[in-house]
Amino acid sequence: MNLSIRNQIPGTVTSVTPGEVMAAVKVRLDGGQDVTAAITAEAVDELDLAPGASVYALVKSTEVALATAAVEGVSIRNQLPGTVDRVITGGAMASVKVTIVGGTLTAAITRDAAEDLGLLPGSSVVALIKSTEISLVTP
């Protein structure tokens, strides 16, 4: 199956914290970073997720925010440091390709934001992703 979701990062489930409706699934990405995905308890069962399970973390590029440094005092748990590889700007939006350990991420942000942050190839950034915006799929 081909997907329009640009960010498809392989990893391994390290823990599942079940709830009545939702579960928090921690995933160690192949690059060594940890992310948390908040998915339905039903999806955990259907995907048979448990520690050791191989998964791909999927994130739409429009759900990746960028900062020039780690952000404290925010509820966003998933903060992945990286380096800007490429910036493509259009009239209103920009596509920013970020290299992280073990892979790449694409962020779709406004052109104004890219300019205000001074994003250029080689710039250090932190990709911010809410746990509710990470989907999981098994290979």
Which key terms come to mind for this protein?
five-stranded antiparallel sheet, 9% helix, mainly beta, 139 residues, 2 helices
What does this structure look like?
There is one protein chain. A hairpin with a 3-residue loop joins strand 6 and strand 7. The protein has 2 helices and 10 strands. The mean pLDDT is 97. The protein is elongated. The longest helix is centred in the first third of the chain and has 7 residues, at 41-47. Strands 3-2-1-4-10 form a 5-stranded antiparallel beta sheet. It has a 5-stranded antiparallel beta sheet with strand order 5-9-6-7-8. With 139 residues, the chain is mainly beta.
Write the layout of secondary structure elements.
Elements: E1 7-17, E2 22-29, E3 34-40, H1 41-47, E4 54-59, E5 65-67, E6 78-89, E7 93-100, E8 103-110, H2 111-116, E9 124-129, E10 135-137
Quick check: average pLDDT?
97
Specify the structural class.
mainly beta
Beta-strand content estimate: over 45%
| Overall morphology | elongated
Percent of residues in helices comes to under 10%
Query: Can you list the strand order of the major beta sheet?
Result: 3-2-1-4-10
Series of H and E elements:
EEEHEEEEEHEE
Q: Mind summarizing the main beta sheet?
A: 5 strands, antiparallel
Radius of gyration: 15 Å
Multimeric status of the protein: single chain
Number of strands: 10
> What is the count of helical runs?
2
Instruction: Report the uncertain regions.
Output: none
Give a short overview.
This protein is mostly beta strands and 139 residues long.
